[in-house]
UniProtKB/TrEMBL annotation:
Molecular-function GO terms, alphabetical: oxidoreductase activity
Sequence ranges assigned to domain NmrA-like in this UniProt record: 4-248
Keywords: NADP, Oxidoreductase
Keyword Chloroplast (UniProt): no
UniProt-recorded name of the protein: NmrA-like domain-containing protein
Family: Belongs to the NmrA-type oxidoreductase family. Isoflavone reductase subfamily.
Superkingdom per UniProt: Eukaryota
Length: 319
């Protein structure tokens, strides 16, 4: 049995992956929490340990005997990456062998300021290993692109991850695209596949790749829209935006993302919706969502959810 610790274990992505890890029966899992009564305290087969993420000494004690530490610290709550830096330092001091930072999205972070902490964490992980003659902490960046489940909005297709609207609105048969960048590539992977591949990677005995791309479906923006039109049986209304407007922070569309992420307050919602729409459009046009395939290659026998089949089942019989 491998000793695992989970930081930020109450989040939706964390819950999906914890379920997959528990299903293997291969791990003793300790969830680090800031709260005496965590929201998911009823999880069978896990231990809970209250920690202060700002106290490195206490974190070191909590991580003694831990082999692998997975972080699900929400980047929006740690924009400078300070919590994850403290976790990394504590993990090294405690003798943790493997670390997984909070990623689970795009490969690049360009034009997505809400993920600025990710880039700081990536750089810090590179630094701690280059300062030593040998690798002091093995790590992997799990990058699955966009959750395929979001294209099922408003229908829930996973146990824990809530529906979230994207620039591809299958419900209303519409999409927002950057004019002239319809060939931009995006990767879409279901939550089920992400959790399954992460669980396999945690069990993997060989050396982790530093970048762990998980590519369920790799498609151009135009192909995603064409797939949606075929599934929904009608043409999509396409609103095209200019790159220069987006670069200036202007979104000239009749609609934007409406459903807010659970980590965003109602007061922040309007501004964040515009910022996220602009950021995803800009970053996709620059290749940020075209993730690599390291975990596909590591587990070639795994069969991913096909986008067309997955969404056809969701939208079958719906007007």
């Amino acid at each position: 049995m491998v000793e695992l610790a989970i930081a930020g274990g109450s989040g939706q992505v964390a819950r999906e992956i914890i379920d997959a890890l528990l299903a293997t029966g291969n791990h003793n899992i300790t969830i680090l929490t800031r709260n005496d009564t965590p929201a998911n305290h009823d999880l069978p087969g896990v231990r809970w340990r209250v920690v202060n993420y700002n106290d490195q000494n206490l974190l070191v004690e909590a991580l003694r005997e831990i082999h692998t530490l997975l972080s699900f610290i929400q980047p929006l709550s740690d924009p400078e990456g300070k919590i994850q830096k403290t976790l990394i330092d504590a993990a090294i001091a405690a003798g943790v062998k493997r670390f997984v930072p909070s990623e689970y999205g795009s490969a690049g972070t360009i034009d997505m300021p809400w993920w600025s902490g990710k880039e700081r964490t990536r750089e810090y992980l590179r630094q701690v290993n280059t300062k030593s003659k040998q690798k002091v902490l093995e790590y992997v960046l799990f990058q699955p692109g966009l959750f395929l489940d979001y294209l099922a909005f408003p229908y829930k297709t996973s146990k824990h991850i809530d529906p979230l609207q994207s620039i591809f609105d299958f419900q209303s048969c519409r999409a927002i695209v950057v004019d002239g960048h319809e060939d931009a590539i995006m990767t879409l992977t279901s939550a089920r596949d992400v959790a399954a591949l992460v669980a396999r990677a945690v069990d993997y005995q060989g050396r982790w790749p530093e970048v762990g791309g998980i590519s369920g479906n790799r498609m151009s923006v135009a192909q995603i829209i064409a797939t949606g039109q075929g599934i929904r049986g009608r043409p999509f209304t396409i609103e095209k935006v200019r790159l220069e407007d987006l670069e200036a922070g202007v979104l000239k569309t009749s609609w934007a993302l409406g459903k807010r992420h659970h980590s965003i307050s109602e007061e922040q919602a309007n501004n964040v919706a515009t910022t996220v729409s602009i950021g995803i459009l800009l970053s996709s046009s620059k290749g940020a969502w075209d993730v690599s395939t390291e975990l596909n290659q590591l587990f070639p026998e795994y069969e991913f959810d096909d986008m067309e089949g997955f969404l056809a089942r969701v939208w079958d019989g719906k007007s």
